[in-house]
Queue: 3 jobs
Job 1
Amino acid sequence: MEPTVGADCDSSYLLKLTRGEEKGTAMVEFTAPSALTSIGLAREMLVPFLSQDEPPKRLIVARDGTSRVVPVPA
C-alpha cells in the first residue's frame, strides 16, 4: 500500500483486524527514510493498541521506534 501523501513516510502496511465478529483495518506507516520495515514489524507496533475498544485506524512509526496515532477523518 502506498503511504499517505504528505506524511513523510516511505513504507506502509494495511493490516486486517478481527475481534470476535468485528472486522476492521489499520494502516501502519514508517517515517522516511525507513531502514527496516516488514508486515511483522507493523503488526508488532500495533499490538499495544489492540486492547483498546477502538484500535487506531492509522499509526505512524518514527525512525526512533516511537509511534503515534493519527486521527482519520470520519
Job 2
Amino acid sequence: MRTGETVSLTLPVRNGMLHVPTMGALAVGSGAAAGRTMRISISTGRLAPGNAGTWHEVRRLAGPVLRATLEDLDPFRDCQEWPAASRLSAEDWLVWRQRLDAAGRRLAKSVPAYARVLGVGLRSVVPLRPGATGLRSSTACQAFGAVAVTLPRRHRDLDALLVHEFQHVKLNALLDMHELFDAKDTQRLMVPWRPDARPVGGALHGAYAHLALTHLQQARGPAARADHLRYRTWVCDAVTRLSATGALTRYGERFVAGMRAAAEGSLS
C-alpha cells in the first residue's frame, strides 16, 4: 500500500478485524473467528474494490508540532498496565485531535526543546480507558516512540503526561545502547513520588521523567513555582540516592550527574 504495488495477500483475522499495520483495518464481521485468514487485494496503493468489509483508516495527527498516529485499532496496542480504549467515535477522535494539537502548540511555546523531540520522536499515541480517579499514562519499553494516555480534564495535564511519558521512551532507547547501572543489582530505593521502594532502574526512570516536569513547571512561571520546587527536590533526592547505591556504571554516573546539574540549574 505504501509503495503503490498491486498484490493479493492472505492475512490473519483477529476478533472480526483484518489489520494492516500502520494503515488501518478491515472489519469483516464478528463471525470471523480469531486465527482465521482472509485474502485481500491491494491495487495501486489502495484496497481494491470487492474486498468484503468496512475499511477503518488509521487516524493521524498532522499539527505543526505533533505528527503521529492516534492508535485505536492495532490489536497489540493493549500492552500497558491499564486497558486501551476501544475504537474512538468520530466525535471523540475530533476532541483528541484538537486537544493533542493544542498541547503540542503549548509545549512549543513553554519548553521548545522538549517539544522538538516530541515532534520528531513521538510516533503513536494510544488512548487508555479513563479510570474512576486520577490520571493514567504509561509507556511500554518494547514500543519505541509510543505513549499511552487518558485524556485529562485539565488541558495543562495533557502537556505534562506527554512530556513525562516521552522521557521514558528516550531513556528506554538509551538503555538499549548503554548500560547505566548493574541490571543484576537487587537494591530498592525509596523515592518521593511513590510509597513503595523502587529498583535502581525504576528510580532512574522516575527521576528522569520528573526532571522534564521540573522544567515544564519552571516555564509556567510564578504560579507554578511550588510544583517546580517540589519536582526539583524529588529529582535531587533521587539522584543522591542513586549515586549512593554503587550500582551505576561510568555512563550511569555521568548521566545522573547531568540530571542533578539540570535540576539544580532550573533555579537560575
Job 3
Amino acid sequence: MLDEEEYAEIWALMRTGMESVKSYRVENRATLESVPLRELYAPMLARYEAMTGYKETNPNAVIHHRLSFYGPPCKSCGKPLRTPKAKICGSCMAPRGLKTN
C-alpha cells in the first residue's frame, strides 16, 4: 500500500504513461489493444516495485494501492476495512472496533 507521498510519485508516473499511450496511438494509428502498455508504463511499474518490493504487471492495479482508499485494520482479523467509513469488516464481518478473538 502507498502513503500519500508515494502515491503522488506513482500517480505522476501514471500520467506520463497515459500521455505516452496517447502519443503512441496517434503516431502509429494504433488501437488500444495493440499498444505495448507494459513498455509505456515501465517507469511507473519499476518505481512501484522499488517502493513495495512487489512486481506488479498491471498498471491499472497499482492505482488501487492507495492507503487512504481503505479504512484502519480490523480489530478482529487485522485486514484493512474496505473504506474509511466501513462499519463492518468485509473479510470477517466483524463490526468496526469490535475485537472478537
